[in-house]
Amino acid sequence: MLANPRLAWVHLTGKLYGNQSHPFNGQLHVPGTLFSRQAFAGLSNKTWGSLTFGRQYAPAYDTLGDIFDPLTVGNYWQNSWMYNGIGPYLEVNNSVKYKGSFEGLDINALYGFGNQPGALGLGATYAVELTYTYGPAMLNAGFQQVSVPTSATGSSVGTSVGSSINGAKSNFLHISGAFQVTHEIRLLAGWLRGQDQTGLTDIYMQQSGAPTLKGSGSPNRIDDTWYIGANWHAMPALLFTFAYYYGQTRNAELLDGTLGKGVNQSATVLAEYSFTKRTEVYGITDFARGTGAFSADYPGGVNGEGVPTNTIGRTNQVGVAVGLRTMF
User: Fold this and answer.
1) What is the mean pLDDT of residues 168-181?
2) 54, 70, 88 - which closes a domain
3) What is the CATH number of the domain that holds 303?
């Protein structure tokens, strides 16, 4: 018999993820970060939930990436995540995270300590996700705010890149829904808004090889993204995913360094056939098109010698891929 039965409901929990390194040179995926995804420990209980401490995924990653994003963060760059501006802030250092479920309501809240002397909120991250499930329907709402210092090293920010303005805010708000029509068909839809005062979103939204921006970044960029999608299990081993994303931005940096508007659209059809729980073959086709400020996010042109130039490249993109993957 336990000496103190009141403590019997608590058990230790923890995980280590990441330890990513470059396959050719052995360098860490994130410089100076051994576990570049998650490394945390804490306590959990079936009734009251879990409380964990360490480097952890932001609640938005848990809900959107695992449940409400039709593509679950796995596609070509422009819609690999519905709003790439928040990408660097989805892994939070020095964080305390609570997760609990109460009669259909799931709570996922996080606070990341800023670790900046003399300024409690500087470098800190605040985030909460609420998800309510009623029968086949799920409704989710979430908010995240990051106060980015000029030197982000040591703060909750999951990257060493700092803001040009000390303590500038990056905010993220979204409402998402899902409905299980039948056992085989699931519908998804949502709206996301990002507001960035750091000037970094203009860079984070760019693909590799995009033209170099001439300005210092927008001091108040606002992005709105709407999406719809569906998952269809045509057979137990065959899954089709359909997704469409429509994004608008304003006060974003244009190629000439001024600020303006833009529209980005993308559509994807994905087929996955599972041989086992871990191994599958997949085929995907993707179309994306950016105009206005989004033109700066696509790979730029090249001159006769193949050297990149600061001009608009192919802002209408079609991608097709077939592959085999094993998940660990």
Assistant:
1) 96
2) 54
3) 2.40.160.10
